[in-house]
Specification:
Length: 94
Amino acid sequence: MAVDLNHTIVPSRNKRASAEFLAEILGLKAGPQWGPFVPVETANGVTLDYMDAEEFRALHFCFIVSEPEFDEIFGRIRERGPGLLRRSRTSRGG
């Protein structure tokens, strides 16, 4: 039996702004609102469906990209400002 992940719901304070932010950073596009969700589709067809929420826990997502794609993404993050590059003592970077 083949099992594929289709989508996951990502709670946020502002679904449109959050979806557009991630899409811009990753070089993707946020889709049109569909029901209560604003989707961001990855290359393998999985969507991150952003939904407005009052309360939520932190989530972790890992994206597989090539080294050149990583450099492009990291460049966009750096352009957005140092607040996006916060590192804790427990992060892999030290």
